[in-house]
Amino acid sequence: MTEYDVVVIGSGPGGYVCAIRAAQLGMKTALIEKYNSLGGTCLNVGCIPSKALLDSSHHFHSAVHEFADHGIEVGDPKADLKKMIDRKRKVVSQTVDGIKYLMDKNKIDVYHGLGSFKDAHTVEIDGEKKETIKGKKIVIATGSKPASLPFIELDKERIITSTEALELQEIPKHMIVIGGGVIGVELGSVYARLGAKVSVVEYLDRIVPSFDKEIGKELMKSMKKIGVKFHVSTKVTAVERDGDNVTVVAEDKKGNEVKLDGDICLVSIGRRAYTDGLNLEAAGLSTNDKGQVEVNDNLQSKVDHIYAIGDVVRGAMLAHKAEEEGVFVAEHMNGEHPHIDYNLVPNVVYTWPEVASVGKGEEALKEEGRDIKTGSFPMRALGRSRASGDTDGVVKVIADAKTDEILGVQMVGARAADMIAEAVVAMEYRASAEDIARMSHAHPTYTEAMKEAALAATGNRALHM
Ligand code: FAD
Ligand code: NAI
Questions:
Q1: Does the pTM exceed 0.85?
Q2: 3-class secondary structure per residue, 411-429
């Protein structure tokens, strides 16, 4: 039986990054993945394919609605969804092949098959053949799966999750999205841009609830422009399929019935930690009531040499959070003292305009009783935004009222996904709003909104407003 220094179960961004870092540090490393392709949710049915379709649909939407404004005549553009999906598959396969290359390069042994614990150091792999390996340390990186509601039967044809929404063969006539969180607004945008009628039903009084309310409002305004309809404060009570028709029944906050008929219903109400088939009990472990593996600050489970990272543990379900934890764990196993500042893990939504934040929001800080000040700057006041025609959005800097330290940044706007990196660096170095206000930002760029918002936060001295 082969014995490894580290056995990683699950090859998503948490698992494969952990394996690379462990191998870099000289540990003999194995990676187990139940599917044939590496990369987990993110590369196969998450981050990468969704962004490929977001980009294709964005191009199409621009061709139909924006090119003419720029003086470009393209006639009557047609969306070929099959081609878009084919392109997406190629992007996924190139990315997944890249992980295989990295495993080979780092001399990591890859096993394909379901990994399950035989005991706290032994993992059985049920693949093409049955194999058993041992690990001095073991890392659980088994990720998450879509959640659903007890009364919804996901038939994966017309009542679907994000996984099927990335593989549709026809543009829906009417897509009803349950849940106005990240998946709902990203994949809702894809199909709205391609011409589908899209209705989002959200339980809370706002969409993208992990951001400040005004950010959700700003995004909603932009999404309404591409035709998306929103039903907020609305509780879904039934979802029925009849042939090609799906009926979603819901109740608004006044108690009125809302009935929507469509051909596709996307259920995107969150994801749940995934440990099915792992046989945690054999290792002396169990899950908490959320299905997560409980870990301490070093990401160790209650059995010291078994770690857990990524979507299967507490915290944001984000690829870059999982990656940070992968590196952390490898270095911790190597006797180092790594650190992760979870407050500085950025949160990004790849709609257009994009949405991004880091640190705490204004509402959360007020709830904590912090004495704060804010400065906002609208994207429409930037020359860069007018030049491109991307004038929707706002950047908000939130700082401590006394010390001026930046405590959070929230933004909606073109390329916010990339712009948020400035705020992450600033906060890592505990910059003040004054620091950002005094730094030169290239003109004309969208990043000037960050400087202007910092100016607004420090004595209301934005220059272009
Ligand atoms: P996963 O990526 O879920 O990987 C876990 C792996 O473990 C899987 O491959 C699974 O097959 C394998 N596995 C499970 N059990 C076993 C077992 N017993 N034996 C062997 N293998 C096993 N995050 C972002 O940061 N940015 C985005 O843009 C983004 N977009 C997303 C879009 C969609 C549609 C979805 C669904 C998610 C998106 N996410 C995004 C979230 C991101 O995909 C996850 O946070 C990330 O994949 C978590 O990584 P992980 O390594 O913890 O788990
Ligand atoms: P989510 O947690 O982002 O949003 C779920 C939404 O559904 C919330 O707004 C919630 O209030 C609503 N909801 C819950 N129950 C409901 C009900 N019964 N009726 C109506 N609405 C209901 O979850 P989502 O969108 O499924 O995504 C899962 C996770 O995947 C995200 O939390 C995120 O971590 C990750 N992800 C990240 C992306 C990114 O980083 N860009 C993109 C896509 C997914």
A1: yes
A2: EEECCHHHHHHHHHHHHHC
